[in-house]
Amino acid sequence: MSKRRRSRTVVAPDGFVVINSDSSQIEARVLAWLAGQEDLVKAFAEKQDVYSLFASEVYGKKVTKENPVERFVGKTCILGLGYGTGASKLQHTLKTTPPGVELDEDECKRIVDLYRQTNDGIVGLWRESEDALESIFAGVKKPYHLGQHRCLTVDSEGILLPSGCYIRYPNLTVEIQNNKPQYSYKSRRGEITLWGGAVVENVVQALARCIVGEQMLKIQERYSVVLTVHDAAVCVVPEDELEQAVSYVTECMSAAPSWATGLPIACETKVARSYGEC
Length: 278
Known about the structure:
globular, 4-stranded antiparallel sheet, alpha+beta
């Protein structure tokens, strides 16, 4: 959606303002927490710039926000490599996403290997999720938890979320390719191929949605949520309550649910006359 079109979606009436509160790096945070990647969880909790930290590893020198191109590489890796992205896709993403960085495939492979070596907990979660696919295909005899916390349950129906909803893979099938199982399932879009990293992406995005959903219900106790976009909640509040409203919405959007103890959550809150200006 263009900024011009966004500016017309939610416009506050006289005496009111729009609050847009956007979760910060929620998928990367949930992934690190679920995988038990404690060094990354600690960095998020301490409000460190995790993009710059990984970029510093990539370039072998200190990278900060004053190095936007190098930091962009770190950001792309933190947000993308956690789901098993390979060198070719990383190369394409870096090249085609502004500001755009061209790296050869060997360098991208080195970066992918570096990420996997320094994030063994996340790599372990990929393997655990691959095992979950095997269990679902075979028919789970005894439900068990996926990840380092007890928020996901694998059973014969699929993967049970804290909300009570399921991630299901209907008509799950498996073929052996290059001595490795290759899973797929039927969806409305056709046949979807699955692997450990894809399952991790599914569960992380689902958990992120559960978190934002609970946060919005808490906000709704005082202020109406008029729009949600990705991991953001948009409210229209009385102008004379702005300070209290910003404080309350930020508090709600910075709180982890009861089932996610130890998950560091943060948000960025903006105020304007319209959603497009936030």
